[in-house]
Structure formats: structure tokens, C-alpha cells
Amino acid sequence: MSYCREEGKDGKDRIVFVSREELTSPSEALIASEEEEVQDGPAGFVQPNGELNFGCPCVGGLHAGPCGYEMREFISCNFYNSKDQEDPRGQNCEDKMFTMMQCIDKHEEYYKHKMSSDPEEEEEDPFAITDEQEDEVSTSHIEVSSSIVPDDSTTAGR
Amino acid sequence: MHRLVPSSRVFSRSITSLSRHIQQNNCYTCHHLCVRCLSNRSDYKGKQNDGSFKHTGYAAMAATSLVSLYMLVKSLRRDDDQWSCYNTACCQTRHVVPGIVPGKEPSSAAEGESNPSQTEQTDDKTPESWTPFYKYLIVGGGTSSVSAYRAIKARDPKAKILIIGEEPDVPYERPPLSKELWFVDSALAKDYKFGKSKRENVFYEPRSFYLSPEALQKAEIGGVGLISGKKVVKLDGQQKKVWLNDGTEILYDKCLLATGGRPKNHPVMEAAEKEVQDRTILFRNTSDFTRLHEAVEGSRSVAIIGGGFLGSELACALGFKGMKVYQIIQEKGNLGTVLPEYLSKHTTEKVQESGVDVLTSQTVTDAQFNADQQVELTLDNGNKISVDNVVVCVGLEPNVDLAKTSNLEVDEKHGGFRVNAELEAMSGLWVAGDVSCFYDIKLGRRRIEHHNHAWVSGKLAGENMTGASKMYRYQSIFWSDLEPYVSFQAIGIVDSNLETYAVFERPPEKKKKKKATESSTEIAENSKVVKQSAGTSQFSTEVSKDPKSVEPKEEFNKGVIFYLRGGSIVGVLMWNISGKIYRARQVISDGCRDEDLYEVAKLFFAPKKQRQED
After folding, report:
1. Which residues from A are below 8 Å from B6, CB to CB?
2. What is this structure's pTM?
3. Which residue among A38, A75, A134 sits closest to B59, beta carbon to beta carbon?
4. CA–CA gap between residue A40 and residue B456 (Å, rounded)
5. B5 vs A: CB within 8 A
6. Continuous segment of H or E residues that includes residue B318
7. What is the b/e burial string over B200-231, where b = at least 16 CB atoms within 10 angstroms of the residue's CB?
8. Nearest C-alpha neighbor of A57 from the set B172, B431, B31
9. Are the C-beta atoms of residues B324 and B301 closer than 8 Å to each other?
10. Residues of chain B with pLDDT > 90: what percent?
11. SS3 category, B367
12. B121 pLDDT exceeds 50?
């Protein structure tokens, strides 16, 4: 049982109180919106036309970082090669990977800071190899490391 | 690919940490704000972000897993490895030394700036003169600047971008200074740290991220350089040259002005004696936060002058800290310039429930330092209050100092530099952020002082600096959380002077059956209650007369308010509703002149399952 209550129009502020049942019924409003006004530029990292958009908010500041250019070169190489049937795992991009690694090494401090954001997990040496049981980690991570799959895949960290 | 056998725990950790990093970036830099994510109240899984996140997740995970793999292997093979010979000694890039402000140390950067001919300038574009040239110059080191350089770098991968900031700190974000930082441990807050992981801090990047100007000159693949603690005192848009306060001249090709603003002072406080001024804080920067934070630790009471966002947020935060807080507001209620009167009064009640003594419709007429070592404020109704400290939050004065020396147009009505719909003041010069008075093709000329606008406009300016020629069309949003009762997001023109239409969800009534016959009386009673009546006392009295009516605090639980101008919706405010910003953007884009506003409002209450109707 629900009823809608409309407050008298006094001055300029109208208020309507409606029960939840009525509110969640489908709306009859038709809204036409221009996509430019609703979307902030190209959507996503991989655009519909197949290009990479490093201006995506998700990239954050990585592309502008000390090794941003090298990372960008490598990821682009990897991505475009993965689409190319001859080099599906992007293995021809090794030189770019080395350049990137060298750069990251030079700026180790910055990238360690960037990557590590959870001190609770890092009270011990993160690189220590222990004999503990391995956690159950999906092996799909390892496959991903060599090629970027542009299409919808499984869990992406969220 | 080399065979690498990582510990899967390290793997999963690094992936988790980067995913989180990406999540946070996703939230911060799009309209789904990270502060909402942290408070677990917002549904940030907006539909246009789902696809993008999966892709970026993979790309970023790929990058990170490789990085972490590399680091792991490097540490494993410390003794003899081809990779271990690359260490920081080989680093050619000179970074700004943490803790030292370039320009204040005469031996390092200042020398480089004022005598550039002495440094090697292999790719100086003007070899004849010794004025350094940077293709992209950003005046101001705030949120817009960060957003701009990221946009520039995305479109021009080898861009050399120089930022000149007046503050000694590297660029940081402002909202936590009046929000999160007050709800974490003091020890963390002192370093401007907040958030779940506690390593998050207000600074967008550590100082090691930024290059010195000389290093930036030499960097073939470009980068982002930062000069802290210097001010641009003159700009010539024709010559494309700027002058710093130390005499340095810099040539540019594209320049962005993002000089922000300074907090306004209250005339009474400004004219008060020194002891009062020593206890008065104009709140804006990290240094103001530190000053207030320290003052709070050693005192018990505080008065906040101003009833806007900043004042109300600080009032609630300081109330949370256990202080005795007075908030002196000129308007009839908190956020009185934004919320329609009934909602502003409701908000005031909530703020009062947080422990703040809100004094509405009052102004400060005098301030004295009394014998109890306190600041005694006299109000226009004759009352006096004595507090240990005073915080002034009466608005922002946009920083248009450059206008006098640089022939730039200032908007008299809104303040700030006047620019067109593409944020351009003249060819090669853009303005973004708090100081930008721009032309919004949908809503008219405006100047917006919110965080998300700084981000969105900085990004747009950066894109236009690299040739995008885009107009301002994507509306920025703003939000407020007056913990823990009031939370809303808004977009467009949200001015309480406009006509409004609001739809609120009515909580289910328990005594409905008994009141079936009295419904008409109840309507009459309640319509008096929410009328535009004068004075808060009348509001509460009407309600208490009818014990069976719904408590006022329950009436404004969840709702949407449309702000109308000329029959079109120009602003949307979502009260305790999350995840509907996309919808709000559509509504403003359309204007909804011919629609039944009630039906439009229903779009904001649709549960997730039904969100396939467009």
C-alpha cells in the first residue's frame, strides 16, 4: 500500500514524497543525451577502434612517470603484436622490455613506492622466498603477462 | 621470454597492490570519486567504467607483473647478473632532492635557472639567447596542473612539461585536508596520510617523480619538471615568455594558468589585533592544515566563520575530534547557498547533532583577545563567544595577480581569468581550475571552485594544448560528506536561488492503517512544516504538535533535487543516492523541458537490475 504526497507549491521549492514501490517502477521519461556531454573522452584503455588510450583515468600517472615513455612503448608493442598472428605472445618486444627494465631499475625507489601501497602486507621482505605453501593463485595471471587481451576476460582485480 | 619462477605470493601481492592502485586512480580521476570508494558508500561500478577497467586491469597487471617479476629476479641474482650492473650511479637524470626546495638552495637549482648558459643545453630550441625554452609550461602546482600534464603526456609522449608552483609542497589534492585527514590518527595526519592502506597521502606524486628544470631540458623523451616556491610575476602572451620573481625568464610554446586562489578573510578578523590574528587561520593549504591541526591538539574550542562546504566539513570534523565547535553562518542554514531552504535547515540540524553549535543568520561584528587568553567574538545580536582559535571559511579569492602585469582579462562578475569555451584566453594560453572563468555552452559563463572541476578542466586544457580543440562539455561534479549524516553528490548549477523540484523516498510508515482517515489532515500539517517558513523554531514546533507524523529527520533520507532555470534542468543534486551520476549527466545534457519531472526523478531510484532501459 503506498501513496504519494505532494507538498503545496509555496514559493519555488516543490517537494514530492513517494514510497519506494512507486519510485522503483519503470520510468516513462525519455532522455536524449549527447555522448560528448556524458562521456569524458574515449572510454577505457583499449578503445573500440583498437587503439590504446593512455589518457584513460585508470592509467593514472604511470605514462607520465620517469619510465612512462618506456612503459608505453613496451605495452603498445606488446598489445599490437599480440593481435598480429605471427607474434601472439609479444615476444618480439624484448628490446623494449629491456629498455623499460633498465629505466625502472634506475628509478627503483619511485616504482617501489608506487607499487607498494599496503604496509600490512609488507612487514616482511616481499622478495623473500619461503617454504610456505603457495597461495592459490589463478594461473591466468601468468598467461596475461605476455599478451594483453583486449576483450572481456575474467577477473580483473576488482 | 625468460623463464622466471616467482613466488606466487609476491605475484598476487603485487598484482593486488597494483589493482588497488588502478582502482584508486580510476576512482580519483573519473567522476566516481575515491573518497566514496573508501567510505564504501558509493557504487562506483558505473557502467561506462566496467569495460574500461577490465582492459586497464589487464594492461596494468601486465606491466606490474613484469615489473615485480623483474625486481624479484634482480634481487635473487644479486651477485652476478647482467641486470645488476644498472644501478643508480648510472642515472643520468638529476632529480630534485627530497626536502630541498629548488630555488632556495643557491648551489643547485637556482644556479641552473638563472644561468642556464652554464648548463649543457643540448636541445635548447633557442641556442642564441640563454633563455630556457619548454614547450609546455604550467603556472601553478595544484590539481589542474597534474591533470593537465597527464593529458599532455598521453597525447604527446615525449612532451617536456615544466610546472612552476608557488607553494613549497609538490602538487597535492585538497579534499582530504578538510575531510579524511581529520578522521585518522594524528601521527598519520601530520604527514598528510589517510586511507585504508595508510600509505595514501595527499600528494599526487612524490618529489622523486619530478625532474629539475635542467634535467628536463636534457631529457630526450621529455618528462615533468617542477620548480617549487617560485612565482610567475609577468607573462607576455605575444612573446610567449614568463618572468619569475627571481628574475628568471622562461620561453614557452603552450602555457596553462592554474593559479587557483587564496582564502578570503573576514573584515573583522583582518582588522583585529595581533593576538587575535595569531589565533586565526584562513584554511586552504597543507600549511594551513598543519597549523590548524597543531592548534587543535593544544586547545579545546574553536569558532568557524562560514557556512559553506569548507566551514561545515571542518565543523563536523573538529566536532568529531572532541572540540567545542561554534559555527557562525550568515545564511539561514548550512550550505544555504546550495541547498533549498528546507534541506539547508535539515542539514543544520544534522550538523548540530554532531555536536556543533551552529549559529545561523548571525555575523561577527567584533573580535578581541580577552584576559582568559581567548578570542572573544561579538555577534550582531550582541552575544559573545570565547574560543581558543578561529577558522575563517568565507570563500576564495581567485588568484589573478598576473592580470595586472600581463594584460589578461578578468571577469568582474565571477572573478578569475576570462576564457572561452575551450578554456583559451588567447592563442597559446589556457586557464583551468578555480581561477578559470569559462564559457559553458550549455549552462553559460561560470567559474567553479570544486575539486573535480579542477581535474576535468585541467585535463581539457591539457588536451587542447596538444591540439584537441575540445569545448567544455563534460560536466564536473562535486560532493559533500558531513559525517555521518549528510552525504550528497551534485552536478551542474546548484544554486539555492533557483526554482527546485525534489522527489524524496518516503520511508515506510508503521502507523499507516490507523492514519488512513487522518491522511488529509496530515498532509495539511506537513505542508506547513516544509513550507518556506521563516525561522527554524517554527519548523520544529509544527512537527512536535502532531506526534503521529513522520519525524523530520526521516523525511529527507534519500532523494533527488532538480534545479530549474527557464524550464530546463540545469543542476541535479543526489541526496544520499549513489551511482547515478551518469544519469544526472544525461538529464542535464537533455534539459528535460518537456518531460514530467516526476518521471525523470524516478530514473534516479531505479534499482540496478532495471538499469537497462536506455
Report:
1. none
2. 0.74
3. A75
4. 9
5. no
6. helix B309-320
7. bbbbbbebbbbbbbbbbbbbebbbbbbbbbbb
8. B31
9. yes
10. 60
11. strand
12. no
Write out residues 252-281 of B within 8 Å (CB-CB) of A. none
- B37-67: pLDDT as tens digits: 333 333 333 333 334 444 445 555 555 555 5
Q: Ramachandran region of residue B602, left (φ > 0), alpha (ψ -120 to 50) or beta?
A: alpha
The alpha-carbon gap from B546 to the nearest alpha carbon of chain A, in Å, equals 17
One-letter identity of residue B510: K
Nearest to B559 by CA among B493, B500, B475: B500
CB contacts, 8 Å: A67 with chain B: none
Of residues B52, B341, B607, nearest to A58 (C-beta): B52
Q: What is the pLDDT of residues B175-204, one digit of tens each?
A: 999 998 998 888 888 889 886 665 688 999
User: Could B341 and A89 be called an inter-chain contact, meaning their C-beta atoms sit closer than 8 Å?
Assistant: no
> Contact B501/A141, CB-based, under 8 Å?
no
Q: Of A82 and B614, which is predicted with more confidence?
A: A82
Chain B, 193 to 212: residues with Cβ < 8 Å from chain A are 197-200, 204-206, 208-209
Nearest Cα to Cα of residue B486 among B579, B605, B354, B332: B354
The answer to whether the peptide bond before residue B484 is cis (omega within 30 degrees of 0) is yes
Considering just the CA atoms, what is the radius of gyration of chain B in Å?
27
Cβ pair B605:A5 closer than 8 A:
no
pLDDT value at B359 more than 60: yes
Amino acid, res. B351: V
Cell numbers 565543523: residue: B315
Amino acid at residue number A70:
E
Give the range among A58-67, B79-88, B264-273 with minimum mean pLDDT.
B79-88
Place of cell 623483474: B70
